[in-house]
Amino acid sequence: LARYDVEGSMAHIRMLEHIGLLTADELKTLLAGLEQIRSEIEEGRFEIEEGTEDVHSQVELLLTRRLGEVGKKIHAGRSRNDQVALDLRLYLKDEIAALQSLVLAVISSLHAQASAHKDTIMPGYTHLQRAQPITFGQQLLAYAMMLERDYGRLADAGRRMDASPIGCCALAGTTYPTDRVFEAQKLGFSAICENSLDGVSDRDFCVELMSACALIMMHLSRLSEELILWSSWEFQFIELDSGFTTGSSIMPQKKNPDMAELCRGKTGRVYGDLIALLTTLKGLPLAYNKDMQEDKEAVFDCVDTTKLCLQIMAPMLATMKAKPENMLLAAQKGFINATDLADYLTKKGVPFRSAYKISGQLVAYCIAHDTVLEQLPLETYKTYSDVFEDDLYTEISLKTCVARRISAGGTGPASVQAQLDSVAAFLAAHQ
After folding, report:
1. Among residues 127, 201, 211, 221, which one is catalytic?
2. What is the mean pLDDT of residues 29-51?
3. What does the alpha-carbon distance between residue 201 and residue 283 come to, in Å, rounded to a whole number?
4. Is the separation of the CB atoms in 88 and 206 below 8 Å?
5. pLDDT, tens digit, for every residue of 121-179?
6. Cis (ω within 30 of 0) for the bond into 331?
7. What pLDDT score was predicted for residue 247?
8. What is the pTM (predicted TM-score) of this model?
9. Exactly one of 232, 248, 354, 369 is catalytic; which is it?
10. What mean pLDDT is reported for the chain?
């Protein structure tokens, strides 16, 4: 928080000069001293000395040591309570912007892969059982939509965080005629915390951001689970780039999806950070309590972990190679067009119950003979019903099954293209 503490102090002394508590020369001297400290922070030379309690005290100590008595004037009209609340908000405002940029990168990778595979047929699942044919593009777009909402949640958290607590002091305000609005504007805030007790004693803005991070991680974890399944020999729907996998120390054939597994695993860590802070805050009376020092480790770790996982996910998706032929074969062997076969018979005048039974018998025949409905000869079909004709193959084609899902949001070509256009518009509006 050191850089933000210095930036907060720069705005604060400008406000003190604005209300007459500092002279113009004192302001100039203090700004130069703070600028030097900021340079030391950026160069990695800033350290909190032994015996100094915190970053706020260290900055004031350096100013006083270097500038003399004028360094002691920097703290008028504020407390470390509102100072740390300010530092944390400034830090998290920047981190929200960084998180949003990373979320957009993942959405962009999903959109690119979805565009390339908008017509790639795969089995859609419920209960992890093959259910209906969909396209790989639509599957990926589902995650893009989830991350769009995550982007919005980050923005919402940022809007509610956009109020300056500086000037609330320890809890009750100050007797100095401070101009909190002036200082807030210098710091880039759109408002001030309207109640001084609230300004120093709540960390709901941390909890809200961490909740948004937890949802991001939940979505990344679900996507990671799919990547892990799809890249297994049992599925073989995709191949992850070697840069995101590792081998085994004793099994040379292995290509383990370690990065996806780590994203999935670190979700629990982010959940833990969120629960830790909620638990810390739940029994605190107003106003400030030292328990609130525990917010830093939790929120820093939560944000850092989420950023790391987002940074990994975007290139992992971008370099992923799909295997359309395996997806199609899985869809065919799942007999997910059996309902369409029964519908074909029904349209030909066969009672639905009879059509349902015939379809089931044909599926059983295919399983017994290791084939699929699309590859059965017409002669075989006719042994089950005379109504089967050559038009059957068009009716039960998986491409036909997909194309007929014409409802908005569905897996049909026009609907998937509309979803692609929607995500493209979202990216264009936010990049």
Report:
1. 127
2. 96
3. 12
4. yes
5. 999 999 999 988 999 999 999 999 999 999 999 999 999 999 999 999 999 999 999 99
6. no
7. 80
8. 0.92
9. 248
10. 95
Report the pLDDT value the prediction gives residue 40, as an integer from 0 to 100.
96
Encoding tokens for residue 18? 């604005």
Our answer to whether residue 12 is catalytic in this structure is no
Q: How far apart are the first and last CA of the chain?
A: 27
Q: Is 127 a catalytic residue?
A: yes
